[in-house]
Amino acid sequence: MLRPLLYLVALITLAGAKQTLTASTELDISSCPITIYGQRYEQAFVNYTSQNLVICFKGFYGSGTKDDCILGPLPDSKNAEFDQFQRIPLLETIVQYNVPTIKTRMDCYLSISYQHKGGYVSSAPSLDNRVMSEPTANNIPLPVCIFCSQTTLALIKFGPLSVTVTNTPSSRQTRGYLDISGCRHSGAVYKPATEVNSPETCFSLTCDEDLVLKTSSCGPMDRCLGNGSCIPAALYDSIFNPKLDLVCTVTGPALIDFHGLLTSVRDRCTYSLLSLPSAPDFQVLANFQERHRKDVSFLDSVTLRLDGPGVQIHLKQGGRVQVNDAPLSLSTSAQMVHGVELSKDLTGVTARVSVSNFTIYVFFDGYTMQIHLQGPVGSALHGLCENSSRSLADLRVPESNPDSCLIQYNDTEESMINCTKMTEHCNLLKKEPFASCDINPEPYITACTTTLCSYPDRDALKCQFLEAYARTCKLQRNATLVDWRSKAKCSFCQDRTCSDHEFCGEKSVGGDNRCFCRAIFASKYRDQNALGDPTVCNQTSGSLTLVNCLLEDEGLDYIALHLKDPTCRGHMDEETHLVTFSFSDINRCGTEVMNTISNHNSSSSIITRKDQVFIDFSCVYMKEAMKAFKVRSSSIIKVSTSGVWNYTLTMKAYTDAARTRPVDSNTEVRLDEKIWVELKTEGLDGDLISVVTESCWATNQESETGSLRYDLIKNGCANPADPTVTVEGNGEGTSSYFSFNMFQFSGKSGNIYLHCKLQLCIKQGNSCIPKCNGARTRRSIRSRYEASALISMVWTN
Ligand SMILES: *[C@@H]1O[C@H](CO)[C@@H](O)[C@H](O)[C@H]1NC(C)=O
Ligand SMILES: *[C@@H]1O[C@H](CO)[C@@H](O)[C@H](O)[C@H]1NC(C)=O
Ligand SMILES: *[C@@H]1O[C@H](CO)[C@@H](O)[C@H](O)[C@H]1NC(C)=O
Ligand SMILES: *[C@@H]1O[C@H](CO)[C@@H](O)[C@H](O)[C@H]1NC(C)=O
Ligand SMILES: *[C@@H]1O[C@H](CO)[C@@H](O)[C@H](O)[C@H]1NC(C)=O
Ligand SMILES: *[C@@H]1O[C@H](CO)[C@@H](O)[C@H](O)[C@H]1NC(C)=O
Ligand SMILES: *[C@@H]1O[C@H](CO)[C@@H](O)[C@H](O)[C@H]1NC(C)=O
Ligand SMILES: *[C@@H]1O[C@H](CO)[C@@H](O)[C@H](O)[C@H]1NC(C)=O
Ligand SMILES: *[C@@H]1O[C@H](CO)[C@@H](O)[C@H](O)[C@H]1NC(C)=O
Ligand SMILES: *[C@@H]1O[C@H](CO)[C@@H](O)[C@H](O)[C@H]1NC(C)=O
């Protein structure tokens, strides 16, 4: 019955315009676009292969394109005919009769027909046996003609539906129609009116009569229970792959451990926060230091030890990172350093490390550190974060701590703290939006109130506790607390680099931040009202080093400070933040420091400070040092006769300790230059007599009793008030010498008269040697003094 109808169809095709396909050809079918399982095509690609004539729709048949292809038997020669036709009412009727799903009007019709000798192909699939619920788009099978001499491949379009047709002249093969309408999903094709349900995967699909596809499955954050029920992934994981998901928070002195228990650190030591028995080389350490107050310690930096003490990554304030001692510059894109992934954003630095089946995130923003640990349940952990009730002494890291870290300091009482107000602030954690997070806020509230009732609310400290709670909610519950920051103005210290004696904090006005001096460091200066170290002076140059955080405390900007010559300015060391004024060219820069270091903006308070600067900056003798002194006469010789002793005494100055370079009237001696003065006698019997230099002193007048007097040697010993004086060989023989640094009477520029009084001493063992170091017996020498002599030397300039 079918055969005559198709034969008739073949007759009708003769009416169309034919195209002979002699080789692989691309065909334009846009006037009859064919839809194959829901995918519409306007082009077809014909290939002759060694086994088949292939019509593909995505592109030429090949390794990349084998889907959506129709394989026909190999033509006898490469001259298949291609043709396109409009609706053929008779064909429409035939197809509708044979394919009950096709009910709509036929649109158009594509055909390729060719000669095929053929043979019996017993394995040819039969449409009748095809399991229609599981077709694939790949190689849409066609019934292969058996004992046929001519084959027609046809595609017929019925609106959104399509049918392929094979001319099957064999009497045995009756039906050559395949409905290729349907839906696609994830590479599979579905016939119209198909429903698929898989409880194992919770997947269900329908492709309805109108080819509308509907699917359902668990959401991206859900998992399938295997019986068609979806549950949230976190819940699924907690049942089927339980994992540790723990957060430990350290902010200021407070530590909230993995179990939500609070402790606080009061010293300035380094503690082990986390270590893993399964990875003994890995450790997270927290270093505590004081900030504004001497008696309260803050978390200051975090250290990751990776290879025992071998590799240490330090996370510091201002987003600084050091690997061992070398600074590392970080950007938002993650960087791998010794297996640690480091990244930095506006909020802080995060280090991610995977050790022994754990993933550990360490975050630090300069105030708050959080360890977020994920790993298998039941693993042992150690450190303060695991159990904050452990004795601190057990977790102190011996090799990181100086002995002084345990010293407790007292500080003045804070009068400005309003504990009631701070408690109100901390209790914000009980309210929305914080209340929407189910993590217990109590340890955070306690840490917040305890800290803020003993430490001033500076540097946005009160925000740190809220911030830490908000981050914990984010990490453990993926909960974003909407807009909590609008309740408290917070400033962060990212990208500000402070030196070791500083920390980053909030300015009292303006909300900006700067580096503040640590309290213990600053106290040695504040106690002396100093802004820096004493001036370092030598004969030709000098330098003054000021501490920038102290200057800033006083509202001074180092940029505005200069010496007398405005071009002589301070230089701030990038690392230490110490400001150094060097004045190698004294004449140019000027030395009258009080007048010369100044701030441009004069106000009475600044004038007061200038006095402080002056005290530190007084290189008193710098200018004087340029002056040269000369000995008016190279040495003074005095013949002395006293009693039975007849001898000569020489007083001679030298510029070297070996006393080989005498100072003569041409030698210039500068202030502060060391000179050696030798007192030498001749004519005394050294076996019997020693010469003791009893005293030496300087006057600004010729008379040795002049009222302006400066002692170099007193009672046979160097004047302890002048550390430059050294006395050698005094009382040991008939000569001795001493040294001192050249000086000048303050404010007086005239001659200097140096007088020495000597005494002869009858030797009895070492009894003539003055006992100088703290001995009270030196007066006993006096009893054996035989005679004294006075000798003087005049220095002029
Ligand atoms: C199909 O024809 C195209 C164009 O001639 C050719 O590039 C491709 O290799 C052919 N594919 C096969 C499998 O012969
Ligand atoms: C699937 O199993 C879970 C747990 O056994 C059960 O609570 C749920 O009701 C089941 N769902 C269905 C659709 O049977
Ligand atoms: C990590 O987990 C795997 C499989 O869960 C286990 O075989 C292995 O022993 C674990 N490694 C360590 C160091 O715990
Ligand atoms: C924490 O350490 C303390 C003191 O060592 C101990 O008493 C307590 O049981 C520990 N707690 C836990 C949860 O291990
Ligand atoms: C700190 O103050 C307390 C009580 O006022 C006192 O007992 C303690 O000795 C002080 N400590 C130091 C180091 O001054
Ligand atoms: C402390 O703060 C509370 C609440 O803000 C306020 O009522 C009280 O007056 C404040 N006390 C002082 C001494 O400022
Ligand atoms: C966290 O929540 C956001 C938005 O609610 C979501 O896009 C994200 O996938 C969630 N992440 C996890 C790990 O659950
Ligand atoms: C003085 O100090 C400067 C700078 O430290 C140094 O270069 C110079 O050599 C010193 N001069 C003397 C005489 O010690
Ligand atoms: C000095 O005064 C000017 C103008 O009043 C101001 O802009 C500047 O910041 C002041 N400088 C210092 C160091 O205070
Ligand atoms: C001291 O000695 C010198 C020469 O050795 C001699 O000329 C002088 O007279 C002596 N004087 C006395 C008082 O003996």
Automatic annotation (TrEMBL):
Residues 246-427 form the VWFD domain. The keyword Coiled coil does not apply. It comes from the Eukaryota. Residues 536-779 form the ZP domain. Gene3D superfamilies: Zona pellucida, ZP-C domain, Zona pellucida, ZP-N domain. SMART domains: C8 (SM00832), ZP (SM00241). Pfam families: C8, VWD, Zona_pellucida, ZP-N. Residues 1-17 form the signal peptide. Keywords: Disulfide bond, Signal. This is Alpha-tectorin-like. It comes from Cyprinodon variegatus. The lineage of its organism: Eukaryota, Metazoa, Chordata, Craniata, Vertebrata.
